[in-house]
From TrEMBL:
PROSITE patterns: NUDIX. It comes from Chitinophaga fulva. GO terms for molecular function: hydrolase activity. It holds the Pfam family WHD_NrtR. InterPro entries: NUDIX_hydrolase-like_dom_sf, NUDIX_hydrolase_dom, WH-like_DNA-bd_sf, WH_DNA-bd_sf, WHD_NrtR. The lineage of its organism: Bacteria, Pseudomonadati, Bacteroidota, Chitinophagia, Chitinophagales. This is NUDIX hydrolase. Keywords: Hydrolase.
């Protein structure tokens, strides 16, 4: 095999940042690293790309082998290439990200690597530059969620406004004023009020809603600027 002369050989890796909604809050999938350095510490789901693979193929293989999750669509987020990001060898990593409904994936998580879902804003310290990867993925998710109603896709067939608010507060790591949130989300005209209530959470109960699929598909940009600032800070009143 011919090789370029006088060029440095680098290791090529992928890391998967998987966000999942469990019906209550948004979570981040982590595993315990199985080899040194940092063996036993918490890490994103990642590994090295093999000679015969593309980065996308490697990401799917590694996610399935280390976590048990299969068939998940992932988008490329960013390439992390700092010379000092890995303490052993110069390693370039391409990060991929996905947002899923955890309840739609019935396969159990892989116990060999202690794959665990942690709350997105309360997870253990991560190895190398994995926190930087997660922070960038969260920033992108928040930006997209402020412009488009993509978070609605994570909710069950019928849901309450408090459930939706809880999801948004989990994503943005902040609290929204209950009245303002309800008015803004209903002003999008993307939700249909149902005849029954959820009476388990409070005596008064909360009305159930569903997505108006016709309006959702025809007017996907109805949530444009739903959150005033995609980089919203803590204690926002929305």
């Amino acid at each position: 095999m011919k090789r370029y002369s006088q060029q440095t050989r680098l290791l090529f890796a992928v890391d998967c940042i998987i966000f999942g909604f469990d019906g209550q809050e948004l979570k981040l999938l982590l595993i315990q690293r199985g080899f040194e350095p940092c063996k036993g510490k918490w890490s994103l789901v990642g590994g090295f790309i093999q000679e015969h693979e593309s980065a996308e193929e490697a990401a799917s293989r590694i996610l399935k082998n280390l976590s048990g999750l299969d068939g998940i669509y992932m988008e490329q987020l960013h390439t992390f290439s700092s010379p000092s990001r890995d303490t052993v060898e110069r390693t370039v990593s391409v990060a991929y990200t996905a947002l899923i409904d955890i309840q739609k994936y019935k396969q159990p998580l892989n116990e060999d690597f202690h794959a665990v879902w942690f709350p997105i804003n309360h997870h253990p310290d991560l190895i190398f530059d994995h926190k930087e990867m997660v922070d960038l993925a969260k920033e992108k998710l928040r930006y997209r969620a402020a412009l488009h109603p993509l978070l609605l896709e994570l909710l069950p067939a019928k849901f309450t406004i408090p459930q939706l608010q809880q999801l948004y507060e989990s994503v943005y790591n902040t609290s929204f004023d209950k009245g303002n949130f309800s008015r803004k989300v209903l002003s999008t005209k993307l939700l249909v009020k149902l005849a029954d209530k959820d009476k388990l959470s409070s005596k008064k109960g909360a009305w159930y809603y569903k997505i108006d699929r016709k309006k959702y598909n025809a007017n996907f940009h109805a949530f444009l600027n739903f959150v005033p600032d995609p980089h919203v800070q803590r204690n926002s009143t929305l």
